[in-house]
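pasting for ref
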Amino acid sequence: MDLATHILIVDDDAGIRRLISSFLDKHGFQAATAANPVEMRTMLATQRYDLIVLDVMMPKEDGLSALSSLQREGGPPVIMLSAVGSDVDRIVGLEMGADDYLAKPCNPRELLARIRTVLRRRDKNIAAAPTDASLPVTDTLRFAGWRIDIDMRMLYDPADQLIALTDGEFRLLRAFAEHPRRVLTRDQLLDFARGGESDHYDRAIDVQVSRLRRKLSDGAGASELIRTVRNEGYLFAPIVTR
């Protein structure tokens, strides 16, 4: 059985591909490279990868477009690399489903630390929360006509249509549904959605909640399902059943 952790580096700069892949190989990972999203998809068809390091600025098809296709297909975690490092671009990358975002040029050691953190998040169970008024973990949770299949990590709307969620969105929705009708702070939600190692700022949770509300917008009013509690956090309003 192949127990190696496989990382795929997607960047049109051959020098950067060599630098990152060599560094990761020396630190116990099995790194492969692709020069563009087309090569990435070819490699994903034949090999399992645990994480993708994806450049934003590439010719023909940029990294954000490639990220969008990965999210639709339920791909592995993604760390975005970009020479454009503003807060706005960082938020856009996170909003589209990236697990982390790092400005170029980056220190390979920092990238290594981010990769390890994202992989720990992937493997870590949802952080423990206070047990009072919380529902026990079950295979299926239902609210306002919606259904969450915990084992399959799927969300179905009131018409029984599958709604695609990123890993972060699913973790956030599960946290809400398992702790309904109580205020959860941004720090708590950050732990639920991304793990205790996360160094993202609180604004990232607001972005995640906004994305989740949009995906719930076809059913009961999403703003009523997830209520903003000023200066405190968010509250999941519906009654949740098993």
